[in-house]
Amino acid sequence: MPSVGKNIPHDSAVGHVSGESVYIDDMAPLRGELIVDFVWSPVAHGRIRGIDLEAARALPGIAGLFTYRDLHHNLFGAIIQDEFLLAEDVVSFIGHPIVVIAAESRAAIRAAKAAITIDIEELEPVFTIDEAKKRGLFIGKTMTIQRGDVTSAFASAKNILEGTFVNGGQDHFYLESQAALAVPGEFDQLTVHSSTQNPSEVQDVIAHLLGLPINKVVVVTKRMGGGFGGKECQATHPAAIAALVAHKLKRPARIAYGKDDDMCVTGGRHPFQNDYKVAFDDDGVITAAQIDFYSDGGAFADLSTSVLGRALTHADNAYYLPNALIRGTVCRLNYPPNTAFRGFGGPQGIATIETILEEIAVVLKKDPLEIRRRNCYGIDERNTTPYGQVVRNNHLPHLFDQIAERGDYHERVAQVASFNAASRTHLRGIACTAVKFGISFNTKFLNQANALVNVYLDGSVQVSTGATEMGQGVNTKIRQIVADEFGIDAERVQLMATSTEKNNNTSATAASSGADLNGGAAADACRKIRTRMAGVAAEYFERVAGIEQSADEIIFENGDVFDRRNFAQRVPFPALVKMCHLERVSVGERGFYSTQGLDWDADKGCGAPFLYFTQGTAISEVEIDRFTGMMDVRRIDMLMDIGKPINPGIDRGQITGAFIQGMGWLTNEEMRYDAKGNLLSHSPTTYKIPNIQDLPPVFNVDWIDAENPLNIRSSKAVGEPPLVLAISVWMAVKNALSYLSGGTIPKLYAPATGEEILMRMTEYRHAARGADAREVAAPQM
Amino acid sequence: MRDHILIHINGKPHRIDGDAAFETLANYLRRDVAATGTKIVCEEGDCGACTVLTRRSAEDDYRAVNSCILNLAQLDGSSIVTVEGLRDEKSLHPVQEAMVQCHGAQCGYCTPGFVVAMVGMFERCDRPCDRIDEKQVRDGLTGNLCRCTGYEPIIKAALAVDGAPAAKMRQRYPSLPDANDSVQVGTFCAPATLDEAIAFKREHPGCTIVQGGTDVGVWVNKRRYQAPAMLSLAKIDSLRELREEDGTVVVGANTTLADFEAFIADRIPELAGIMAIFGSPQIKNAGTLVGNIANGSPIGDTLPYLFVAGAVLELNGGARTVPIDRFYLGYRKFDLQPDEIITRVRIGIVRDTLKLYKVSRRKDLDISAFTAAIRLAMTGDRIDRAGIAYGGVAPTVIRLPRTEAFLTGKSATLETFEQAGRIARSEIKPISDVRGSADYRLQLAENIMTKFWYEVFGETTTPRLAHA
Predict the structure, then answer these.
(1) What's the confidence (pLDDT) of residue A772?
(2) Domain check: are B252 and B364 in the same one?
(3) Over 90: is that where the pLDDT of A1 sits?
(4) What is the CATH number of the domain that holds B290?
(5) Which residues of chain B have pLDDT under 70?
(6) Which residue range forms the structural domain that includes residue B70?
(7) Which chain B residue has its CA at the smallest distance from A473's CA?
(8) Residue B38 is part of a domain; what is its CATH number?
């Protein structure tokens, strides 16, 4: 029985439910271990005039205080090296670390924080995209994707629509806040346990900042208590800070952010403000689209340019844009650097084009799904993206038609309309949106992975890859892949902690591609071992059963090895392992995988950046209280193409989790700041991620039966795409407002909080009753 | 007077002396007991990752509480079960097994809290508890946040559990420390009698009374709050009262919000409706109604009802009484002498027309942006008397005398309530904060009157969304 396709539990599930799984802050304290924390900038933009550490140095329990002067290098960055780990003369966001404190106790940390005085001259901060645009404060250069001629298309257009899509940020709210434990070794070596999606980057940055060769640093990641992109780049900071202490003081050093601190000092999903102009015919078919993306990158580049790139390559989403001019610019603001977050710019790009389609429907007074269907990528024509990649194996038309049927779309649209006509107290809306999410890192070289597979004498197997486990089940999937390669039970395969000692120069576990890349590498290692084992087996079968030697005929299945020409003669897998050992044939191997066929020119904005697309459609229906703006999601239907799942239970969990996370971003999760740039919503009391009551009463999740021969075991990446389908919830709110907006396009910012919804409804009510009717209390009926 | 704390953890006795008693239970578990299954995330009782079960007396069930905002001193005499105590040597608890099989855990960090809270749901003695339904699952887990699963697999797991074969925790861990006597550790005192409590409060001006600690625990964690002294009334049996008397509900200072909610379910269903979305089970199992009153937050969710129902506070066992709408003198300022303790509250059971409202960003377990209580005494369609209280629009919960006066004598038409909404809007000056802008609150203050009209006098055909 193959393991792939089976719904086996997550490989850490038993540890998770019994409290035995170990995270960084659960590790037992080491002898001499220090607690590490830091003092950060209390102002969003300022010049440091002086730092007084004398009083703090004299305090009991303080082992060390460090500033940027204690670092070999201070400047780093994954793409653009513009970030200072510790502020030098300028601070550029609230939360920017300035002084590192290493202490014997938490009380000493608190005392030191109170005793350190930093004299900062406040400079004028920039808190809006508009202000950054005005001042020309940008990160990187403007990126462009262009096809055809939008100018002449606009000139000859039947209809033109213009608008701006605005979305807010989102905190990752991984339950386990950033954490690291750095342990000094002999000869300047360091072992750093880090809750990171990207051990190799943590390793590289630590070596760079401390002036060590990379081979002096080992980074180990057993697991994360959630990542979602928040630990792709920004787990590096705590790890580097702990490493600095461990390196300087030669004592183990642990840092674990509190949740409030984590939310204040780390960046999140990028706010965007996108101006669009589209031309379309009277049937709603788009003839040209010009979209100018502006993102809030925060104070430093981090991954912002790459996030923007994904926004641009997803500005088409499921829809064919014959003439397109898509441009994007990252703005530099005085907030913490925004970073990777599940979807990575894709959601912002897709929300923009979905908004456009919804608004075309309002303008033409047609059904929005009909408009979407007309613009949807075709199978054999109208199937090339604005950047030139052909959308192969396109299931979108089918997914649209199927979801409409399964979700009773047309019937429910009619019900919503009659409900809204009848109800004085509530308002409903319904929307169907799609996702076409490109799989592969936009940056070509990142699409590689290596794996180490060791088979032991009892036939049990250890696998190490560069993939990091953050709950998404990548280790379980690799376990299943490896089990099938050897024809053994998944129980016999143990996934090891990710370590840069085992796997070098790895890519982040990101872009939904962890299982694609690392599963591919692990399978490669297994096949190499299997080939050698098959040779030994063939010799054996010739010796004992007179079967002519042919390694190609050897089958690994159900824990046994046999020649397909003689089923009866079998060797148990462990016995063959032992045989190999005695024959001095290696049963350990390193595998490698690199995604083939990618071709992307970021400067020109053209090529084929993706191996394939994960696709889906969703229908959401909402109900709004006309008096309070409070919103309930009544029903969600989702249908996806995720290939052949390696583990259906795990993939389903990715779909439901991603959708609800996306719904949080677009509804109740709001990063609220005061006028000085202080984050006000910095804990779950004020920052409201969805809770269990927010799961809609009807939540239908399904996928079609489809192959994906391009990827390991015909599977598809699933981590990010379903998040994008949550746009249907926000769009349903917009649809509801269209019943009040008197034929005009209903405006709505994301997130659609109760306050946002109520204020929009109030606006339309006032507009409906005339400008002098501001005092009228009843909602429009 | 005993000078140390006695608790049991997973059946093993622990004695805690001196300053260690002021450590939170979560920290004690993680650092001193090396039981790191209990996670600390938010340190304010809003995520549930630190959930443990506690039990204080032989009559009690084990109940889920947040261990990150409870200190050890408060728990004197309690028996505690952590995630490590759920399984036996041979097998997982059925809840754990269901979570494994249903993919209820992804990253695993919230999982121990969910598992413990779920086990707690099968510990209730007041109902058959071999199976729970979806409503019970959702209501029982509002205090646990998960960022990975979208909750669907967790609900499936809970519904798959057969609780019958599991040994109940009260059978697995029946023992309680022998600790009914008065205890004082440093500046913390938990006396066994009210007289001792009053004496302690008199001797320690500025003393903070800590009951469930659901507010004080957060202040300590987040603001490094240091009370000159702390007093717990938990051991005073007479303050556990909860009964109906002469058309009122009498609630002692030790009555938890959970017990209060169950008691009023049929007596004051409108208030029970607010209690259902008021806070998590963990908070309601620890926090008390009197604590909610004494905290005096302008957005305390029970207060608007108490205002329009004419609740009366009894101090020091009845030595003095104060009507609740005269108790609040300003933002967290009270008509309460240094040697006075709120010992009980007497709450009218309103049988008039009554609606309570709570508007928050997220419907469940969220601090309100705006709250309201609207009560009408009617003859036919004529309003004889109106009682209106708003929260979240001033430093305290307030009555709206002008709006009340306007409504008195009017007939209940839509126009009347639209006008009332505009008057209500003009009576308040709310502020903008993280929960909403002043404009938003003004609009809510206005709209809620119309909403009330529709709900009470208007159409009734609109089907209301019911959670499955």
Answers:
(1) 43
(2) no
(3) no
(4) 3.30.465.10
(5) 125-128, 459-468
(6) 4-84+173-231
(7) B106
(8) 3.10.20.30
B206: CB partners within 8 A, 6+ apart: B227, B228, B229, B338
- The helix, strand and coil proportions of chain A, stated in percent and rounded to the nearest 5, come to 35, 25, 40
Q: Which amino acid is at A214?
A: I
Query: From residue A294, how far is each of A270, A300, A727 by CA, in Å?
Result: 10, 15, 19
What residues of B are in contact with residue A758 (Cβ under 8 Å)?
440, 443-444, 447
- Pairwise CA distance, residues A613 & A384, whole Å: 13
**What is this model's ipTM?**
0.97
* Cα distance between residue A176 and residue A199, in whole Å: 17
Dist. CA B207–CA B228, nearest whole Å: 6
In this prediction, residue B296 carries a pLDDT of 82
Q: Give the pLDDT confidence of A585-643 residue by residue, as tens digits.
A: 999 999 999 999 999 999 999 999 999 999 999 999 999 999 999 999 999 999 999 99
CA distance linking residue B438 with residue B425, whole number of Å: 11
Active-site residue flag, A124: no
Q: Tokens 């023992």 identify what position? A: B175
Residues of B in contact with A690 (CB under 8 A): 150-151, 362
Domain end marker among B348, B374, B400: B348
B69 touches chain A (CB under 8 A): no
User: Measuring CA to CA, which residue among A373, A360, A361, A433 is closest to residue A401?
Assistant: A373
Helices vs strands, H then E, count in chain A = 20, 31
Euclidean distance between CA atoms A737 and A743, whole angstroms: 10
- What is the CATH classification number for the domain harbouring B115? 1.10.150.120
Question: Which of B166, B189, B217 marks a domain boundary?
Answer: B166
Residue B138 lies inside a defined structural domain of this protein: yes
Cβ within 8 Å, pair A652-B421: no
Question: Which of the residue ranges A317-321, A341-345, B339-343, B464-468 would you say has the lowest mean pLDDT?
Answer: B464-468
Residue-wise pLDDT for A522-571, tens only, equals: 999 999 999 999 999 999 999 999 999 999 999 999 999 999 999 999 99
Q: How remote is the C-alpha of B220 from its chain's centroid? A: 18
What are the Cα distances from residue A600, in Å, to A308, A317, A442, A472, A612? Answer: 15, 18, 8, 28, 14
Cβ separation B363–A632 shorter than 8 A? yes
pLDDT tens digits for range A174-229: 999 999 999 999 999 999 999 999 999 999 999 999 999 999 999 999 999 999 99
Strand partners, A290: A277, A325
- Here the tokens at position A229 are 């992109």
B129 & B273 share domain:
no
Integer Cα distance of A278 and A529 in angstroms: 56
Residues 6+ apart with CB under 8 A from B462: A422, A423, A424, A425, A426
Residue A294, burial from CB neighbour count under 10 angstroms (0-12, 13-18, 19+): buried
| Distance between B350 CA and the closest CA of chain A, angstroms | 25
| The pLDDT of residue B297 | 83
State the Cα–Cα distance between residues A500 and A205, nearest whole angstrom.
13
Q: For A657-706, write each residue's pLDDT tens digit.
A: 999 999 999 999 999 999 999 999 999 999 999 999 999 999 999 999 99
Nearest-angstrom CA–CA distance, A22 and B36: 8
Q: How far, in Å, CA of B454 to CA of A587, rounded? A: 76
Q: What is the pLDDT of residues A247-259, one digit of tens each?
A: 999 999 999 999 9
Position B462 in a domain: no
Identity of the residue in A16, A426, A693 whose CB atom sits nearest the CB atom of B105: A16
- On whether the pTM is more than 0.80, the answer is yes
**CA dist A568 → A563, A575, A707 (Å):** 9, 16, 33
- List the helix and strand counts (H, then E) for chain B: 16, 20
- Contact between B52 and B81 under an 8 Å Cβ cutoff? The reply is yes
